[in-house]
Amino acid sequence: MTSTALLTDMYELTMIKAAMHAGTAFRRCTFELFPRRLPPGRSYGVVAGTGRALEALRAFRFGDEELAFLRANGITDPELGAWLADYRFSGNIRGYAEGDLFFSGSPIMVVEGSFAEVVLLETLLLSIFNHDSAVASAASRMTLAAEGRPIIEMGGRRTHEQASVASARAAWIAGFGSSACLEAGRSWGIPVSGTAAHAFTMLFDTEEEAFRAQLAAQGESTTLLVDTYDVDEAIRTAVRLTEGRLGAIRIDSGDLSTEVRRVRKLLDSLGATSTRIIVTNDLDEYQIAALRGAPVDGFGVGTSVVTGSGHPTCGMVYKMVSRADSDDRSAPQSPVSKKSKDKSTIGGQKFVLREIGDDGIATAEVIGVGVTPRSDSNDRMVMVDLVRDGQIVGTEPLSEARARHERAIAELPLPGRKISRAEQAIPTVFVDETGRPVDNVYVAGKPPANL
Amino acid sequence: MTSTALLTDMYELTMIKAAMHAGTAFRRCTFELFPRRLPPGRSYGVVAGTGRALEALRAFRFGDEELAFLRANGITDPELGAWLADYRFSGNIRGYAEGDLFFSGSPIMVVEGSFAEVVLLETLLLSIFNHDSAVASAASRMTLAAEGRPIIEMGGRRTHEQASVASARAAWIAGFGSSACLEAGRSWGIPVSGTAAHAFTMLFDTEEEAFRAQLAAQGESTTLLVDTYDVDEAIRTAVRLTEGRLGAIRIDSGDLSTEVRRVRKLLDSLGATSTRIIVTNDLDEYQIAALRGAPVDGFGVGTSVVTGSGHPTCGMVYKMVSRADSDDRSAPQSPVSKKSKDKSTIGGQKFVLREIGDDGIATAEVIGVGVTPRSDSNDRMVMVDLVRDGQIVGTEPLSEARARHERAIAELPLPGRKISRAEQAIPTVFVDETGRPVDNVYVAGKPPANL
């Protein structure tokens, strides 16, 4: 992996330079990465990006090329340049495990170390979580709407070419079955799939020749795209060529809800009763939900998943929540918060418990401010160690994140599974050391006024 | 640059494999990359991505690692593997020059070569143009709304970390003044800027200490962030410390429209009459336009520009528009088109002229189907050669694209500069060899019914 160090906003470096001169750059601090609120109408979000963030952290190194650029542009002075050359994050990171759900104010990541080493990671961490979690949050709703029928992620062409790979990864965590993107297969071991586009049919003099060529190369289990010219004629041809044994057809246009019913009848009448119907065509979770009773066997989703279905970013922010009063490494940290209008933060280290009822269903996201919330037997602690004293300890196979997502979804109360406009699935409650809600930040399914 | 070859949908390879077996893989074809329509309410789009696409084309090579992955997953057979190993695009590409405007149906790129070599580029080209042009299209509207006041792109943290760099590039083409992203500075020479975040202020025991530290490191021309605690108090401190010579203040919260007027008065009353006011806080083109008469000297824009201000992708597609009837390299190509419901394409090679009136204002986008439109003296041909016989000839400095954007915007009719909901600025007209509009695809400021 090439260096990720310059995927950083310039002001991180100007702040560190100024703090170095002032002698405050190495005060111990804690920063928190959190979403102020869920997008309107969403009942939960899905954490994605953790594994990529840990990889990016490993590659966060200022090499000769990076340092030369910074020096040539007057961004570093010799002291800052020397410090960057040796930069290795040496602090601690705790956070939500990948695939788990998040809610308003959830401390997705808590990063602790010297001000300089912690603030420097702001841009990169936010980029990764804001993107990947937006995609996973949308994908999870599509997975719910599909009710077990497989979804292929095929949106790579609708987003930046590298975001494409990260999108495939995030969608897979959130339950998609495969991706069209080859690099997602190579980088992350995600199952890849794909058959043919309209251009393939158009390459041949007749549709029948195109189908024959595809069947010869891919076998009868393949998926034939049937809407380049006339759908019914294409289906008759496809069934005839395979004597009814065709694996699947794909429809990429028209009013799918009526079309699939008609097409199912036609396939059945021709004896192709086990030929599956795959639909694509600007689908999102609402259209998938609308096809609930329809004879659809699989979905391909593109634009809407890679663009977060209306919410392409999560609005996560990275804020200082506590710091030491001196440069002494062992000095205790005190909570700090800013008071900007509508953008204030809640100071203090956070510890999170998902309160789970006897029926296994979540009832609250309890965030202890400076304290670990008390737990009952069913409750589970949400945060895990990701980096300890600079050592990455949170790496896991991607399949773990996918399995965790599935378990976390199973804990959702029924109203939280609604695809239509919903409230937050469970309330976020900030508690103090007495276990009682912190007065001014109680969140009843909504972000508090001052969060 | 590492290989871009696997940033490709799997079906491009399954199609090529099947076509190879059928003997049609090397028929000469022409594919066109075009947007079916502009997003609702937009009067124009901005082409961005061309320079990146040419770089990505140069890096589109299947090395040992890529080939091993494909072989291991049964995606390639020996014949396809051998062909990919030698893959070098050998065809021709013409297209809109970067920074120019586009409209419904504009053939942004026309790619000609063998079916196999041309179809293989589909995913990567679409990813780049769909992303970069979405950002540039949004950025251009913000530039118009800012009426000459500089805009800083600071949205890297809201999008995928690599999309961040491409976004900074696209925004700069469309008139932004600088970017917060260091990698955008290194990769593309874009001016970078940035000063401090709230965390910097919170690192110190008092706001005054923080301001002193920043002034010491960056000088009095710096921008001090004044809304961590109390805005008025911060401004008084900042002016006092610099004896009124402070470069700028930044406000990142509150109702900016009333706030900046109040703050301007305060600065003036304290004698800091030349201290500039920079505003940030989830700005988009509408909020920038709403600050038209306000004493704002510069804007920072994040989320809205990197997410295309409501339209994070352009909906560009890549479709076969003509092909030869045989594998003979010199066989003439005939137009082809698909007839899918609501998604039909217009067959044939396209050549584009921007019709310009005597006043220098554009009046139509004239697209010749299979023919070069006749031009008058003021008109200009829109497409340029980008690749000839596999040789990249369209590389240019990024500043060319930025200058071209500025010139193209100067040609826009006044209603086309509206930030509020508008029709397409000029009509798209498809013409045939007689110069007359092609009957069924005349576009009067709107996409035709069948486009």
UniProtKB/TrEMBL annotation, chains A, B:
Class of enzymatic activity (EC top level): ligase
A Pfam family it matches: NAPRTase_N
InterPro entries per record: Aldolase_TIM, NAPRTase_N, Nic_PRibTrfase-Fam, Nic_PRibTrfase_pncB, Nicotinate_pribotase-like_C
Post-translational modification remark: Transiently phosphorylated on a His residue during the reaction cycle. Phosphorylation strongly increases the affinity for substrates and increases the rate of nicotinate D-ribonucleotide production. Dephosphorylation regenerates the low-affinity form of the enzyme, leading to product release.
GO molecular function, one term: glycosyltransferase activity
Highest taxon listed in the record's lineage: Bacteria
Keyword Transmembrane helix: no
Pathway entry: Cofactor biosynthesis; NAD(+) biosynthesis; nicotinate D-ribonucleotide from nicotinate: step 1/1
Gene3D superfamilies recorded: Aldolase class I, nicotinate phosphoribosyltransferase
Swiss-Prot/TrEMBL keywords: Glycosyltransferase, Ligase, Phosphoprotein, Pyridine nucleotide biosynthesis, Transferase
UniProt catalytic activity: 5-phospho-alpha-D-ribose 1-diphosphate + nicotinate + ATP + H2O = nicotinate beta-D-ribonucleotide + ADP + phosphate + diphosphate
Family stated for the protein in its record: Belongs to the NAPRTase family.
Name of the protein in question: Nicotinate phosphoribosyltransferase
Organism name: Brooklawnia cerclae
